[in-house]
Amino acid sequence: MSDTNKFDQIKDWYVSNFTRFESKLNGQSETFLHDIRKESLTKFKELHFPTIKDEEWKYTNVAPLLKDNFQLPQYLGKTVIDEKFIYNNSFTDFDYDRIVFVNGKYSPEHSIIGELPKGAVISSLESAIKNYPELVREYIGKHTKVDNAFVAMNLTYSTDGLFVYLPKGQMLERPLQVFFVSGSDEDKVLSIPRSLIIAEEGSAAKLIVNYVGTGSNSYFTNTLTEIHTGANSNIDYIKLQDEKKNSFHIDHTFVYQDKGNIFNHYSFAFGAALSRTDVSSVLDNENIECHYYGIYLGTDKQHIDHHTFVDHAKPNCMSNEVYKGILDDQSRGVFNGQIMVRPDAQKTNAYQSNKTILLSDKANIDTKPQLEIFANDVKCSHGATIGKLDQEAYFYIRSRGVEDKIAQSMLIHAFAADVIEAVNIEPMRDQLNHKLFEKLNRVEI
Amino acid sequence: MIKIKNLHASVEGNEILRGIDLEINAGEVHAIMGPNGSGKSTLANVLAGHEGFEVTEGEVIFEGKKLLDMAPEERARDGVFLAFQYPIEIPGISNATFLKTAINEIRKAHDQEEISAKEFLERTRKYAKLLNMPDNLISRSVNSGFSGGEKKKNEIFQMLMLNPKLALLDETDSGLDIDALKIVSEGVNHFRSKENAVLLVTHYQRLLNYIVPDFVHVLSNGKIIKSGGKELAFELEEKGYDWIKNEELETA
């Protein structure tokens, strides 16, 4: 049986869950979101889970993730987590608000949200649908591209997730730490959050989005985020994917950028057996800055895939992508960076860099820049390097009396430094560095 | 201090060193001079343990130990230091982290206590001042964004901080203007003592105006073809390397 047929059988199983799922929705089946859900179900039925024959999934075989039937959390008992678990996974040494979701569902007992600027909202999507239906209706799904079954699956089965609204000119004084905790001792769970972030003109916020795992079973996080940034707003979105190493993570993030907006996306991909992060931005006005940064780590047989798409639709914008990979053992990385410069987008500056260090002979990376340029007055560049640790630098450090393991750690630190230092919340840098060495199981520098 | 016997080394099958014999005692400064490609830098790198070179024959005894059997970090801990011809940039690692790690690794190997913050700071201040380096040097990343001259000074700064027994200076003078050359030389002269030794590798005689060697050796085609006192350097400057090569031919 071909992968397509096998995958379709599994999809049919996920589709067949819908009737039971619908009966458990209670009040939610009456909201407008349910209409969207039913449309999405139709698309879910039509679309396929991607196989390696799909160009966009050529290097990422999702068969291991489709081997198991992951249960919707509605069918399972509640996963209980303690405060200490959240605290131990938090970034500390600065003030922050916190919102926690367990298996995609808002967990008020772990969320601590202080006073917010006038009109600003940090809540669950579920309650935003009740409290701000017009706002949600205006933006939800607006920039989401439903082109594979994972996206359709999220839109069909998600019931909750993060909702952030920043009215005109308002700024979150404290960063917001978001937790998506997934997993269950009872069964293999499907955690399926859907998030919506709306930043009106001149607003600003920093978000730290942590994906972490609990419980003994493997799980599957299929997450989707829409970010709408208004003119001259300034948003930092720092994602730490630290899922359990027996689990799966698929993330689609869709960003719309308006005039003069500065958007920084950081992807720290440290966990999961198989992870895929798709992030895309539409630069739909002038003087926009779009910065994507990423560090991906692989040990054992981890598979980490990043797909980016920066769509320059209008003139005088800049985008910059810096992705760095450190791959050990038999891990495998994938990077695909698509940049589109449309005919209108004159005076575009677009840069992309993907560098990977292979710490083992059995680790590997597939990297592909994909530039499509239809304007003539633009500056675009891309570069990809793959290699071992720099042997001259390695000798240099050892020649000062430093043992081999520490010398390697220094070079790893040096390699990751520019991405870590680009994080605008200073206390996070050391903590990210610490996690990096912990994940690689190496001496920390 | 160090005894090099019949040292042969090659890179990718090409023999670069073809039988070097050299003995350096504590308190001595030796200069190795020679034209490009003669093997000067190779000698310094082989002694420091660069793995890009294969030693095919010979022996090196350093302080009673077989140097060639030791890893680069072991050699450094026993007191070998190489000032690189092309120092490496390590962005994101400060000079402070780098040097503290190195000093403590060396101390650990000798069962000594870690350097105190106070002593470290005092030494960095003293040597930075001696070498006319900026106060923020220690918080800057290793060689990152440094000019060629600053990098060379930083090598000498590291040497003073680590205080080795044998300093191998690989073309430390190349790319330096006269002011920087004087400062670097001052650093080396400050370092010189009865307990340590210096091996200078250089193409030009001008460095030897400031760091006066006890012995000068001329290296050509992987062999030492002439040795003498400091006056040999002046003769070389005047007559060029061909003079010795021709002399070699005549005596041969």
Features of the shown structure:
A: 445 residues; alpha/beta; ten-stranded mixed sheet; 11 helices; 36% strand; globular; B: 252 residues; 8 helices
Give an overview in words.
The complex is a heterodimer of chains A (445) and B (252). With 445 residues, chain A is α/β, with parallel strands linked by helices. Chain A has helices at 3-16, 18-23, 32-46, 63-66, 83-88, 125-131, 133-139, 149-157, 391-398, 404-420, 426-440, and strands at 97-102, 105-106, 121-124, 162-166, 176-182, 189-191, 194-199, 204-213, 219-229, 234-242, 248-257, 262-269, 274-283, 289-298, 303-312, 318-327, 332-341, 349-358, 364-373, 379-387. Chain A folds into two domains: 3-285, no CATH class; 390-445, no CATH class. The radius of gyration of chain A is 21 Å and the shape is globular. The longest helix of chain B has 15 residues, at 95-109. Chain B has helices at 40-48, 72-77, 95-109, 117-130, 148-162, 178-191, 231-239, 241-251; strands at 2-11, 14-24, 29-33, 54-62, 65-66, 80-83, 90-94, 141-142, 166-170, 197-202, 215-220, 223-228. Chain B has one domain (2-251): 3-Layer(aba) Sandwich (Rossmann fold). The model of chain B has no long low-confidence stretch (mean pLDDT 93). Chain A binds chain B through residues 390-393, 395-404, 406-407, 410-411, 413-418, 420-421, 445, and chain B through 48-52, 71-73, 75-77, 81-82, 84, 87-88, 90-93, 97-99, 101-103, 105-106, 109, 141, 158, 162.
Topology diagram in text:
The complex is a heterodimer of chains A (about 450) and B (about 250).
Chain A: H1 3-16, H2 18-23, H3 32-46, H4 63-66, H5 83-88, E1 97-102, E2 105-106, E3 121-124, H6 125-131, H7 133-139, H8 149-157, E4 162-166, E5 176-182, E6 189-191, E7 194-199, E8 204-213, E9 219-229, E10 234-242, E11 248-257, E12 262-269, E13 274-283, E14 289-298, E15 303-312, E16 318-327, E17 332-341, E18 349-358, E19 364-373, E20 379-387, H9 391-398, H10 404-420, H11 426-440
Parallel strand pairs in A: 1-5, 4-7, 5-8, 6-9, 7-9, 8-10, 9-11, 10-12, 11-13, 12-14, 13-15, 14-16, 15-17, 16-18, 17-19, 18-20
Antiparallel strand pairs in A: 1-2, 3-4
Chain B: E1 2-11, E2 14-24, E3 29-33, H1 40-48, E4 54-62, E5 65-66, H2 72-77, E6 80-83, E7 90-94, H3 95-109, H4 117-130, E8 141-142, H5 148-162, E9 166-170, H6 178-191, E10 197-202, E11 215-220, E12 223-228, H7 231-239, H8 241-251
Parallel strand pairs in B: 3-10, 3-11, 6-9, 9-10
Antiparallel strand pairs in B: 1-2, 1-4, 4-5, 7-8, 11-12
